[in-house]
Write a structure and sequence with these properties.
The chain is α/β, with parallel strands linked by helices and 300 residues long. Helices cover 42% and strands 23% of the residues. It comes from Chamaesiphon minutus (strain ATCC 27169 / PCC 6605).
Length: 300
């Protein structure tokens, strides 16, 4: 048994939840994949995977083994990249995740520019607004906005802050009036962005004064660009990062309110698994994206 190959096969079987899909991904036969896992189990003298006709389930020993094996394989890949980077330019695949709105408006464009400089680095960009487990789902880096992640297995590199604003369409403000204080928001229709840290609690500051207001509305969405479009359509007030509403503001389709009140900015981070921190291709990517996105944050 080639131990390294067997470990790689076991990992892919678990990640893909299928012997046949792992075989296809690794360009091996189903029999070869099954044999590698069986030989691992024979050597360890314990069952790693419960096999049924419908699905695969890890045993308790299998769960522990998978976590440790994944960490070892990732560290080995990182060491190989580190050594290779001493003699060759960065290359290989990077799996990147980012929120849908930020990805569409800024991250994707920055990646296009990055690949023109580093054509030997392939990028797999996955955009979605759900929480992503970077390690379990095999991502090299995630671009995220919000608070720091309390996870010792991750490293957070701060990129910059983006201002958040409250705004609405001129049509809405003409019909319902412009709020003069945060308390006035209680009387207004608000479009709720459900993935915000506190969707129904909008907080403001002015001098030494801080105010948190409970808001509500008939429309709730899980995408900030959709919330911005709803505001342009006159459905209510929104509280979003400036990059999502900038086009509407510059085009006169939206108008900011409560300008004398400050809001907590959205902090952008590049977050990556700690065992990947010596990867040359990851470091050049983070450096490039940090400069590209921090300049955007400063400009808006």
């Amino acid at each position: 048994m080639d131990k390294l190959t067997a470990l790689q096969v076991f990992r892919r079987v678990v990640e893909l939840e299928s012997f046949s899909r792992a075989a296809e991904a690794l360009n091996l036969s189903n029999a070869a994949v099954s044999k590698n896992v069986q030989e691992l189990e024979k050597e360890l003298r314990t069952q790693l995977i419960h096999r049924t006709t419908r699905r695969l389930n890890l045993t308790e020993a299998g769960k522990v083994y998978f976590q440790r094996v994944s960490s070892i394989l990732d560290e080995l890949e990182s060491v190989e990249e580190c050594v290779a980077d001493l003699s060759v330019k960065p290359h290989g695949l990077l799996r990147v995740t980012a929120p849908m709105s930020l990805g569409l408006t800024h991250v994707a464009t920055a990646i296009y520019q990055f690949q023109s400089i580093y054509p030997d680095i392939q990028i797999e960009l996955i955009l979605n607004d759900r929480y992503v487990d970077l390690i379990e789902e095999g991502f090299d880096v995630g671009i995220r906005g919000g608070g720091l992640v309390n996870d010792n297995s991750l490293v957070a590199h701060q990129i910059g802050d983006i201002q958040r604003v409250v705004c609405a369409s001129p049509t809405y403000l003409k019909q319902y009036g412009e709020p003069k204080s945060p308390e006035d928001l209680k009387q207004h229709h608000c479009v709720i962005y459900t993935l915000a840290r506190s969707p129904h609690e909008w907080s403001f500051g002015r001098g030494h004064e801080t105010v948190s207001v409970h808001v509500d509305g008939s429309l709730k969405v899980n995408n900030s660009l959709a919330a911005s479009q709803a505001a342009v359509a006159g459905l209510g007030l929104i509280f979003l990062p400036l990059f999502t509403v900038l086009d509407g503001l510059e085009g006169g389709m939206l108008k900011t309110v409560l300008k004398e009140w400050s809001t907590e900015p959205l902090t952008l981070y590049a977050i990556y698994p700690k065992h990947r921190q010596h990867s040359g291709k990851l470091q050049v990517f983070i450096d490039f994206m940090s400069e590209a996105l921090s300049s955007i944050a400063a400009r808006i």
